[in-house]
Amino acid sequence: MAETPNLDLIHPLKLFDIAKNEERFLYTSAPMVRYSKLAFRQTVYAYNTDLCWTPMVLAKEFNRNHFARDSDFTISTNSPQPPTIVQFGANSPQELARASTLVIPFSNGVDLNCGCPQSWACSETLGAALMEKRELVRDMVVETRDHLRRDGWGVGKEKDINNPKGRSVSVKIRVHKDLRRTIDFINTVLGPDQDRHIDWLTIHPRTRSTPSSTPINLEALELLTSTFGDRVPILLSGDVFALNALPFTSPLLAPAPTLTQTLSATTNSSSSTTPSKNPPLPAAYHIPKLAGLMSARALLCNPALYAGHDACPWAAVETFLSNAARAPLPYKLVLHHLSEMCGPGMGPNKAALLNKQVRTGLMACGNMFDLIDFLDGLRELRRDGREQGVVGI
Ligand SMILES: Cc1cc2nc3c(=O)[nH]c(=O)nc-3n(C[C@H](O)[C@H](O)[C@H](O)COP(=O)(O)O)c2cc1C
């Protein structure tokens, strides 16, 4: 982290307002350890993502170690800086507050991870273990807000929406098997309606032990948004795979397909230019009090998801590569991003940008120079009209 630049940062709640006025969901990109780094955030931002999360940063290490600060948090001071929420892993009010004061000049807000299910995190009372510690979570967000306020930041939520020093404090949670416990948790963390402790809440409707291959718990989402959606803006994290195939309806979405439309999509899928092997099912759930969407795995495969692309366009790969050149990533990470973007996505459209053979060639590139040569070769093939298995370039 360098000297404090003069950053004019928009209050995230203003972004919620803008999306609401446009009668759409707020589009956000999830915290992803290793992956949601600057180059990726800039890429999704170029494709309609409103608000981006950093990967989880461990507050204690961040406070104590300047190498951790340099490697865990990078922003751009001279090219588009996506509105950014820094997510922390923390289990102490002082550590979270201190780490928050360090990043807040450079970020639009801070967030606490109460969802990471990994055993190393839970054994240190980080991540999902915090779902059993609702008073501690409340104390962490209250202390953070107080500390930021004392430092002169505007943490009055809607009151500070137009304040250039306005910043947010939010929490990302999973749910309990017994949803009454999640309701207790949220009530405690939310605090009084007239001065709630958090700006918004992100809900990943899976329990700590639900695998990510199991669909999200829509019943939980419906219950929690109908209970709390008027008191605090709520984001959904989980299974946001394609804007036209969400498993619920909302006034902020185009109407869900009827059964007849679904069946006719199945019958006609072979003539579609973007084949849809699994057309969306009619949604059984209506979630009118949801404010926004957060996507992780689907955005990794298709950073242009929120721009209405149901599969990754080649231009997104080019955008990512030029961002990665300016905000470098370890080479293996670049390769991983490319393999995700060039393979089949998470949504119903399973068309891959590059076929398996070409992707294998891509993955065999040993360094950035080989990779650039390989991609130049693909572009030439395309220009010569000789490409095989290369879609979209
Ligand atoms: C590679 C990867 C890294 C993740 N890292 C974090 C993290 O740092 N903090 C967090 O709260 N969640 C993290 N998650 C969980 C996601 O933010 C998200 O809640 C979850 O993947 C469900 O969303 P999805 O169905 O869109 O993938 C991670 C998920 C993935 C796949």
From TrEMBL:
Keywords: Flavoprotein, FMN, mRNA processing, Oxidoreductase, tRNA processing
Cofactor(s) required for function per UniProt: FMN
Domain DUS-like FMN-binding residues, every copy: 30-244
Gene Ontology biological process: mRNA processing
Pfam family, one: Dus
Record-level Gene Ontology MF annotations: flavin adenine dinucleotide binding; tRNA dihydrouridine synthase activity
InterPro entries: Aldolase_TIM, DUS-like_FMN-bd, tRNA_hU_synthase_CS
Protein name: tRNA-dihydrouridine synthase
Organism ancestry: Eukaryota, Fungi, Dikarya, Ascomycota, Pezizomycotina
